[in-house]
Amino acid sequence: VFSFKLRGAYNMMAKLSREQLNNGVICSSAGNHAQGVALSARKLGCDAVIVMPVTTPEIKWRSVERLGATVVLKGDSYDEAQSYAKLRCEQEGRTFIPPFDHPDIIAGQGTVGMEIVRQLQGPLHAIFVPVGGGGLIAGIAAYVKRVRPEVKIIGVEPSDANAMALSLCHGQRVVLEHVGGFADGVAVKVVGEETFRLCQELIDGIVLVSRDAICASIKDMFEENRNILEPAGALALAGAEAYCKYYGLKGETVVAISSGANMNFDRLRLVTELADVGRKREAVLATFLPEEQGSFKKFAELVGRMNITEFKYRYDSNGKEALVLYSVGIYTDHELKAMVERMESSELKTVNLTDNDLAKDHLRYFIGGRSEVKDELVYRFIFPERPGALMNFLDTLSPRWNISLFHYRAQGETGANVLVGIQVPPEDVDEFRSRADNLGYEYMSEMNNEIYHLLLRSPNKV
Ligand SMILES: Cc1ncc(COP(=O)(O)O)c(C=O)c1O
Fold first, then answer.
1. pLDDT tens sequence across 279-304
2. Burial level of 147, CB count in 10 A (0-12/13-18/19+)?
3. Largest alpha-carbon pair distance within the chain?
4. 259 part of the active site
5. Is residue 398 among the annotated active site residues?
6. Right CATH number for 280-355 from 3.30.70.260, 2.40.50.100, 3.90.1580.10, 3.40.50.150?
7. Pocket mutation for ligand 1, best pick of 29, 35, 136 (most atoms within 8 Å of C-beta)
8. What percent of the chain has pLDDT over 90?
């Protein structure tokens, strides 16, 4: 099933009595746990119902169905799917198989730790483990700390899905309001009770990593082994690398768990785009050039020997300054800094966009789009991936207010990340917010992002 999740599910289900197996099992999951439960049920000869949110991409529920389970699509979110699964569990006497928070699930995932210890008998500095709900790390820590207490167990989370790091910091389980969906295998709002208890007692720390760093690790793994990991599967590798670099670790043995390879193929486009940024091999920049003859040549001279990997320019009849968006292949931070300084000292305002997700996901595609739009508000909305999501959005907000900007590029994520500009007069802002809240899509303002003002607002006001 291309992930470790089979271990926990099978361990729990193999311990059920024949009578329990005859009554069947049920679980709710939009991902790898579903496949683990489905395959275990087939091996153990029991009936499995898997409840998935209606937004689950077809490719995911089809692969579960192919393993012989009955898929029920119910609810808009994981929480709704879970409530329905628990209800059916009571009504039908099925056993609920949770994704992480159960001693048998934790023990099953812990077999990963047992295998590492058996296969690596020499000195071992640390094991890096991806963390979602915490089942895998709790199981590995419980086993390894018993037999090799000197080995550090370090969790790795995406910096925008850091439920375990925050919970450990506050000494209690924290519920995240927003969870980044890029590494969907570990995108949980709250970690388990038992997994948290074990992590508090046993693990040595958590490393947080960016989306770019995860992409860079996916590329490294591909280049080394020709394997393609899913984002959650490459998380630990990214964390191990950041940790070793930070502590200047050399000559030590560390293990990073590559936990899954259920990569949505469409997402590879984004991964390849971000991988070089994550490795600092490519930087994304914007430079403002006076709209006059010879500017372009001067710009090219200042770029010097840096290798331009992407370049976008469009004449702007309203502007005194042209905006050039480009990427350069970089060799060292020093060379990049020197180039930006060359631009600045020739009075060519230059902005490094490399760490700005709004620029990388949306604004770099908007060349030539700068204008002064009255009462414009700009938000990022996360549209659920289901037919009708756009119509629902438009029905709620338009034609009441004019849409002044819209950018969406499919990136194979669970929710579509859409940038929307909308003209809302000040007296309508409260009504707009209440309608946007009722829509039920996650959204966040980008009005304070200076890059939006720089790249999209009128050049005359720059
Ligand atoms: C590929 C992958 N890695 C890591 C995890 C995290 O596991 P846990 O929820 O036990 O922390 C998951 C969970 O589904 C996963 O699918």
1. 878 899 999 888 777 787 788 889 88
2. exposed
3. 83
4. yes
5. no
6. 3.30.70.260
7. 136
8. 62
